[in-house]
Amino acid sequence: MAMRQTPLTCSGHTRPVVDLAFSGITPYGYFLISACKDGKPMLRQGDTGDWIGTFLGHKGAVWGATLNKDATKAATAAADFTAKVWDAVSGDELMTLAHKHIVKTVDFTQDSNYLLTGGQDKLLRIYDLNKPEAEPKEISGHTSGIKKALWCSEDKQILSADDKTVRLWDHATMTEVKSLNFNMSVSSMEYIPEGEILVITYGRSIAFHSAVSLDPIKSFEAPATINSASLHPEKEFLVAGGEDFKLYKYDYNSGEELESYKGHFGPIHCVRFSPDGELYASGSEDGTLRLWQTVVGKTYGLWKCVLPGKNFYSELPNSKMHGFFCHFSSLILFQEEIASENSDSIYSSTPEVKA
Protein backbone atom coordinates (compact mmCIF):
# COMPACT_ATOMS: atom_id res chain seq x y z
CA MET A 1 0.00 0.00 0.00
CA ALA A 2 1.18 3.51 -0.77
CA MET A 3 1.27 6.51 1.48
CA ARG A 4 -0.94 9.45 0.64
CA GLN A 5 0.62 12.40 -1.16
CA THR A 6 -0.05 15.70 0.63
CA PRO A 7 0.78 18.53 -1.79
CA LEU A 8 1.57 22.10 -0.94
CA THR A 9 -0.74 24.31 -3.01
CA CYS A 10 0.74 27.64 -4.12
CA SER A 11 -2.00 30.12 -4.94
CA GLY A 12 -1.71 33.65 -6.29
CA HIS A 13 -2.03 33.32 -10.05
CA THR A 14 -5.39 34.12 -11.64
CA ARG A 15 -4.99 32.28 -14.95
CA PRO A 16 -3.42 28.98 -16.11
CA VAL A 17 0.19 28.30 -15.11
CA VAL A 18 2.00 27.31 -18.31
CA ASP A 19 5.69 27.07 -17.38
CA LEU A 20 7.92 26.77 -14.33
CA ALA A 21 11.62 26.42 -13.61
CA PHE A 22 13.89 25.90 -10.62
CA SER A 23 17.19 27.63 -9.99
CA GLY A 24 20.30 25.75 -8.95
CA ILE A 25 21.05 25.30 -5.25
CA THR A 26 22.38 28.54 -3.76
CA PRO A 27 23.60 29.48 -0.24
CA TYR A 28 19.99 30.61 0.38
CA GLY A 29 18.36 27.42 -0.87
CA TYR A 30 16.79 27.12 -4.31
CA PHE A 31 14.02 29.06 -5.98
CA LEU A 32 11.05 28.51 -8.27
CA ILE A 33 9.67 30.80 -10.97
CA SER A 34 6.30 30.36 -12.66
CA ALA A 35 4.93 31.73 -15.93
CA CYS A 36 1.22 32.39 -16.19
CA LYS A 37 -1.33 33.71 -18.65
CA ASP A 38 -2.16 36.44 -16.12
CA GLY A 39 1.06 38.17 -17.23
CA LYS A 40 2.55 38.19 -13.73
CA PRO A 41 5.41 35.70 -13.26
CA MET A 42 6.08 34.86 -9.62
CA LEU A 43 9.18 33.92 -7.64
CA ARG A 44 8.93 31.48 -4.71
CA GLN A 45 11.16 29.69 -2.25
CA GLY A 46 11.61 26.34 -3.94
CA ASP A 47 11.34 23.95 -1.01
CA THR A 48 8.33 25.57 0.68
CA GLY A 49 6.47 27.39 -2.10
CA ASP A 50 6.52 30.60 -0.07
CA TRP A 51 5.83 33.62 -2.28
CA ILE A 52 8.78 36.02 -2.58
CA GLY A 53 7.66 38.44 -5.25
CA THR A 54 5.92 39.12 -8.56
CA PHE A 55 7.66 40.54 -11.63
CA LEU A 56 5.43 43.36 -12.95
CA GLY A 57 5.82 44.83 -16.42
CA HIS A 58 4.47 42.51 -19.12
CA LYS A 59 1.31 43.50 -20.99
CA GLY A 60 0.25 40.03 -22.05
CA ALA A 61 0.34 36.37 -21.13
CA VAL A 62 3.74 35.10 -20.01
CA TRP A 63 4.52 31.82 -21.77
CA GLY A 64 8.02 31.06 -20.49
CA ALA A 65 10.13 31.82 -17.43
CA THR A 66 13.53 30.80 -16.15
CA LEU A 67 16.13 31.61 -13.50
CA ASN A 68 19.88 31.63 -13.89
CA LYS A 69 21.91 29.11 -11.93
CA ASP A 70 22.44 31.24 -8.81
CA ALA A 71 18.96 32.81 -8.89
CA THR A 72 20.25 36.38 -9.26
CA LYS A 73 18.53 36.92 -12.61
CA ALA A 74 15.21 35.91 -14.11
CA ALA A 75 14.00 35.97 -17.71
CA THR A 76 10.47 35.83 -19.07
CA ALA A 77 8.89 35.34 -22.52
CA ALA A 78 5.53 36.91 -23.28
CA ALA A 79 2.69 37.52 -25.70
CA ASP A 80 3.45 41.26 -25.73
CA PHE A 81 6.25 40.53 -28.25
CA THR A 82 8.98 40.93 -25.63
CA ALA A 83 11.36 38.97 -23.48
CA LYS A 84 12.42 40.63 -20.24
CA VAL A 85 15.42 40.17 -17.98
CA TRP A 86 14.94 40.89 -14.28
CA ASP A 87 17.03 41.31 -11.15
CA ALA A 88 15.70 38.33 -9.20
CA VAL A 89 16.86 39.79 -5.88
CA SER A 90 15.27 43.25 -6.11
CA GLY A 91 12.58 42.41 -8.68
CA ASP A 92 13.67 45.30 -10.91
CA GLU A 93 13.38 45.03 -14.67
CA LEU A 94 16.87 45.12 -16.20
CA MET A 95 16.04 45.07 -19.89
CA THR A 96 13.28 44.55 -22.41
CA LEU A 97 14.15 42.66 -25.59
CA ALA A 98 11.73 43.49 -28.41
CA HIS A 99 10.63 40.74 -30.81
CA LYS A 100 8.44 40.67 -33.90
CA HIS A 101 5.95 38.14 -32.55
CA ILE A 102 4.92 36.26 -29.39
CA VAL A 103 7.91 34.95 -27.40
CA LYS A 104 7.49 31.47 -25.93
CA THR A 105 10.82 30.45 -24.40
CA VAL A 106 13.93 31.88 -22.71
CA ASP A 107 17.14 30.28 -21.37
CA PHE A 108 20.36 31.63 -19.82
CA THR A 109 23.84 30.31 -20.52
CA GLN A 110 25.62 28.90 -17.47
CA ASP A 111 27.58 32.15 -17.00
CA SER A 112 24.38 34.24 -17.41
CA ASN A 113 26.02 36.36 -20.10
CA TYR A 114 23.75 35.28 -22.96
CA LEU A 115 20.01 34.74 -23.30
CA LEU A 116 18.42 32.42 -25.85
CA THR A 117 14.86 33.18 -27.01
CA GLY A 118 12.36 31.60 -29.37
CA GLY A 119 8.76 32.12 -30.37
CA GLN A 120 6.12 32.43 -33.01
CA ASP A 121 8.37 34.12 -35.59
CA LYS A 122 10.27 30.80 -35.97
CA LEU A 123 13.66 32.39 -35.17
CA LEU A 124 16.13 31.60 -32.43
CA ARG A 125 17.82 34.71 -31.02
CA ILE A 126 20.95 34.96 -28.89
CA TYR A 127 21.32 38.18 -26.89
CA ASP A 128 24.59 39.33 -25.34
CA LEU A 129 23.34 40.67 -22.00
CA ASN A 130 26.54 42.66 -21.52
CA LYS A 131 25.75 44.56 -24.73
CA PRO A 132 22.03 45.32 -24.52
CA GLU A 133 22.24 47.77 -27.43
CA ALA A 134 23.70 45.15 -29.79
CA GLU A 135 21.48 43.27 -32.25
CA PRO A 136 20.97 39.60 -31.38
CA LYS A 137 22.37 36.77 -33.42
CA GLU A 138 19.59 34.96 -35.26
CA ILE A 139 19.24 31.32 -36.30
CA SER A 140 16.60 30.39 -38.87
CA GLY A 141 15.43 26.97 -39.96
CA HIS A 142 12.28 26.16 -38.03
CA THR A 143 9.13 25.96 -40.12
CA SER A 144 6.64 26.69 -37.34
CA GLY A 145 6.58 28.59 -34.06
CA ILE A 146 9.26 27.61 -31.54
CA LYS A 147 7.90 26.20 -28.30
CA LYS A 148 11.11 25.55 -26.37
CA ALA A 149 14.79 26.42 -26.79
CA LEU A 150 17.57 25.32 -24.43
CA TRP A 151 21.33 25.59 -24.18
CA CYS A 152 23.08 22.22 -23.92
CA SER A 153 26.53 20.62 -23.91
CA GLU A 154 28.07 23.41 -21.79
CA ASP A 155 26.44 26.04 -24.02
CA LYS A 156 28.23 24.73 -27.12
CA GLN A 157 24.96 23.57 -28.64
CA ILE A 158 21.29 24.54 -28.69
CA LEU A 159 18.19 22.35 -28.62
CA SER A 160 14.93 23.73 -29.96
CA ALA A 161 11.44 22.36 -30.57
CA ASP A 162 8.66 23.58 -32.83
CA ASP A 163 5.35 21.89 -33.54
CA LYS A 164 6.61 18.51 -34.79
CA THR A 165 10.40 18.90 -34.93
CA VAL A 166 13.29 18.95 -32.46
CA ARG A 167 16.55 20.41 -33.79
CA LEU A 168 20.12 20.44 -32.53
CA TRP A 169 22.29 23.42 -33.46
CA ASP A 170 25.99 24.22 -33.17
CA HIS A 171 26.46 27.50 -31.31
CA ALA A 172 29.77 28.43 -32.94
CA THR A 173 28.69 27.94 -36.55
CA MET A 174 24.97 28.68 -35.99
CA THR A 175 24.11 25.68 -38.16
CA GLU A 176 21.82 22.71 -37.71
CA VAL A 177 23.55 19.48 -36.67
CA LYS A 178 20.60 17.10 -36.66
CA SER A 179 16.82 17.02 -36.33
CA LEU A 180 14.07 14.71 -35.12
CA ASN A 181 10.64 14.60 -36.75
CA PHE A 182 7.46 13.50 -35.00
CA ASN A 183 4.05 12.60 -36.35
CA MET A 184 2.28 14.67 -33.71
CA SER A 185 2.85 17.90 -31.82
CA VAL A 186 5.77 18.07 -29.38
CA SER A 187 4.34 19.28 -26.07
CA SER A 188 7.50 19.72 -23.96
CA MET A 189 11.26 19.27 -23.81
CA GLU A 190 13.66 19.00 -20.86
CA TYR A 191 17.47 18.84 -20.94
CA ILE A 192 19.40 16.90 -18.27
CA PRO A 193 23.09 17.97 -18.28
CA GLU A 194 24.25 14.99 -16.23
CA GLY A 195 24.34 12.25 -18.83
CA GLU A 196 23.27 14.58 -21.68
CA ILE A 197 19.68 13.33 -21.76
CA LEU A 198 16.81 14.98 -23.61
CA VAL A 199 13.23 14.33 -22.45
CA ILE A 200 10.55 14.91 -25.10
CA THR A 201 6.78 14.50 -24.75
CA TYR A 202 4.32 14.15 -27.62
CA GLY A 203 0.85 12.64 -27.52
CA ARG A 204 0.95 9.92 -24.86
CA SER A 205 4.66 9.29 -25.37
CA ILE A 206 7.56 10.22 -23.11
CA ALA A 207 10.78 9.76 -25.07
CA PHE A 208 14.41 9.93 -23.99
CA HIS A 209 17.14 10.82 -26.46
CA SER A 210 20.84 11.59 -26.35
CA ALA A 211 21.21 15.37 -26.28
CA VAL A 212 24.50 15.01 -28.17
CA SER A 213 23.39 12.82 -31.07
CA LEU A 214 19.56 12.83 -30.70
CA ASP A 215 19.71 9.03 -30.84
CA PRO A 216 16.83 7.34 -28.97
CA ILE A 217 17.47 5.85 -25.52
CA LYS A 218 14.04 4.61 -24.44
CA SER A 219 10.40 5.68 -24.34
CA PHE A 220 7.32 5.17 -22.17
CA GLU A 221 3.65 5.28 -23.07
CA ALA A 222 1.24 6.98 -20.64
CA PRO A 223 -2.52 6.35 -20.31
CA ALA A 224 -3.38 9.91 -21.37
CA THR A 225 -2.02 12.80 -23.43
CA ILE A 226 1.07 14.16 -21.65
CA ASN A 227 1.94 17.86 -21.65
CA SER A 228 5.15 17.74 -19.61
CA ALA A 229 7.61 15.31 -18.04
CA SER A 230 10.69 15.59 -15.85
CA LEU A 231 13.51 13.19 -15.01
CA HIS A 232 14.81 12.92 -11.43
CA PRO A 233 18.38 14.29 -11.03
CA GLU A 234 19.60 10.84 -10.00
CA LYS A 235 17.68 9.32 -12.93
CA GLU A 236 15.68 7.10 -10.59
CA PHE A 237 12.21 8.40 -11.33
CA LEU A 238 10.21 10.17 -13.99
CA VAL A 239 7.12 12.29 -13.37
CA ALA A 240 4.62 13.39 -16.00
CA GLY A 241 1.31 15.21 -16.19
CA GLY A 242 -1.23 16.05 -18.83
CA GLU A 243 -4.80 16.28 -20.00
CA ASP A 244 -6.41 13.87 -17.50
CA PHE A 245 -5.46 16.10 -14.50
CA LYS A 246 -3.27 13.28 -13.14
CA LEU A 247 0.39 13.05 -12.20
CA TYR A 248 2.24 9.86 -13.07
CA LYS A 249 5.46 8.63 -11.50
CA TYR A 250 7.53 5.95 -13.22
CA ASP A 251 10.66 3.98 -12.45
CA TYR A 252 13.07 5.30 -15.07
CA ASN A 253 14.99 2.03 -15.39
CA SER A 254 12.11 -0.43 -15.60
CA GLY A 255 9.34 1.81 -16.88
CA GLU A 256 7.01 0.57 -14.14
CA GLU A 257 4.28 2.98 -13.07
CA LEU A 258 4.89 3.61 -9.36
CA GLU A 259 2.16 6.12 -8.56
CA SER A 260 -0.68 8.00 -10.20
CA TYR A 261 -3.09 10.41 -8.62
CA LYS A 262 -5.33 13.28 -9.55
CA GLY A 263 -3.03 16.23 -9.12
CA HIS A 264 -5.08 19.28 -10.12
CA PHE A 265 -8.55 20.48 -11.09
CA GLY A 266 -7.50 21.09 -14.68
CA PRO A 267 -4.97 19.82 -17.23
CA ILE A 268 -1.36 19.86 -16.05
CA HIS A 269 0.83 22.06 -18.28
CA CYS A 270 4.26 21.76 -16.65
CA VAL A 271 6.12 19.59 -14.16
CA ARG A 272 9.74 19.77 -12.94
CA PHE A 273 11.90 18.13 -10.29
CA SER A 274 13.72 20.36 -7.81
CA PRO A 275 17.52 20.48 -8.17
CA ASP A 276 18.00 18.20 -5.14
CA GLY A 277 15.32 15.78 -6.33
CA GLU A 278 13.38 15.91 -3.05
CA LEU A 279 10.22 17.30 -4.59
CA TYR A 280 8.62 18.18 -7.89
CA ALA A 281 6.39 21.07 -8.87
CA SER A 282 3.41 21.05 -11.19
CA GLY A 283 1.53 23.92 -12.83
CA SER A 284 -1.99 23.68 -14.15
CA GLU A 285 -4.91 25.16 -16.03
CA ASP A 286 -6.50 25.56 -12.59
CA GLY A 287 -4.14 28.47 -11.85
CA THR A 288 -2.13 26.81 -9.09
CA LEU A 289 1.30 25.33 -8.58
CA ARG A 290 1.62 22.31 -6.34
CA LEU A 291 4.68 20.84 -4.68
CA TRP A 292 4.87 17.07 -4.21
CA GLN A 293 7.28 14.89 -2.24
CA THR A 294 9.38 12.50 -4.27
CA VAL A 295 9.47 10.12 -1.28
CA VAL A 296 6.25 10.46 0.71
CA GLY A 297 6.68 10.54 4.48
CA LYS A 298 10.10 12.17 4.56
CA THR A 299 10.85 15.25 6.67
CA TYR A 300 11.62 18.01 4.18
CA GLY A 301 10.64 21.66 3.79
CA LEU A 302 7.22 22.09 5.37
CA TRP A 303 6.64 18.35 5.55
CA LYS A 304 7.38 17.13 9.10
CA CYS A 305 7.18 13.46 9.92
CA VAL A 306 7.07 12.28 13.53
CA LEU A 307 7.48 8.74 14.80
CA PRO A 308 4.75 7.61 17.22
CA GLY A 309 5.81 7.80 20.86
CA LYS A 310 8.20 10.70 20.27
CA ASN A 311 5.75 13.38 21.46
CA PHE A 312 2.15 13.95 22.50
CA TYR A 313 0.83 13.71 18.98
CA SER A 314 1.44 9.98 19.14
CA GLU A 315 -1.21 9.71 21.81
CA LEU A 316 -3.89 10.91 19.40
CA PRO A 317 -6.28 8.01 18.68
CA ASN A 318 -6.30 6.84 15.09
CA SER A 319 -6.70 3.17 14.34
CA LYS A 320 -5.48 3.59 10.79
CA MET A 321 -2.20 5.24 11.73
CA HIS A 322 0.79 3.08 10.99
CA GLY A 323 4.47 3.94 11.21
CA PHE A 324 4.39 7.70 11.21
CA PHE A 325 2.39 10.77 10.34
CA CYS A 326 3.18 14.12 8.75
CA HIS A 327 2.16 17.59 9.78
CA PHE A 328 2.61 21.14 8.55
CA SER A 329 3.21 23.30 11.61
CA SER A 330 0.04 22.95 13.69
CA LEU A 331 -1.99 21.11 11.07
CA ILE A 332 -1.83 17.35 11.57
CA LEU A 333 -2.02 15.21 8.47
CA PHE A 334 -2.14 11.50 9.18
CA GLN A 335 -0.61 9.32 6.51
CA GLU A 336 -3.12 6.53 6.03
CA GLU A 337 -3.33 3.46 3.88
CA ILE A 338 -5.28 4.14 0.74
CA ALA A 339 -7.22 1.55 -1.16
CA SER A 340 -6.78 3.09 -4.58
CA GLU A 341 -4.31 5.73 -5.70
CA ASN A 342 -6.69 6.77 -8.47
CA SER A 343 -9.80 7.20 -6.31
CA ASP A 344 -11.33 10.66 -6.72
CA SER A 345 -13.19 10.30 -3.42
CA ILE A 346 -9.95 9.66 -1.57
CA TYR A 347 -8.18 12.43 -3.42
CA SER A 348 -10.90 14.93 -2.58
CA SER A 349 -10.36 14.23 1.11
CA THR A 350 -6.63 14.78 0.89
CA PRO A 351 -5.68 17.75 3.06
CA GLU A 352 -3.78 20.54 1.38
CA VAL A 353 -1.77 23.36 2.79
CA LYS A 354 -1.65 26.66 0.97
CA ALA A 355 1.81 28.16 0.88
TrEMBL record:
**Record's Pfam families?**
WD40 (PF00400)
Task: Report whether Cell division shows up as a keyword of the record.
Answer: no
Q: Share an example GO biological-process annotation for this protein.
A: retinoic acid catabolic process
SMART domains named among the record's database cross-references: WD40
Query: Which keywords does UniProt give here?
Result: mRNA processing, mRNA splicing, Repeat, WD repeat
Q: Name one GO cellular component term.
A: SMN complex
Identify this protein by name.
Answer: Serine-threonine kinase receptor-associated protein
Give the organism's phylogenetic lineage: Eukaryota, Metazoa, Chordata, Craniata, Vertebrata
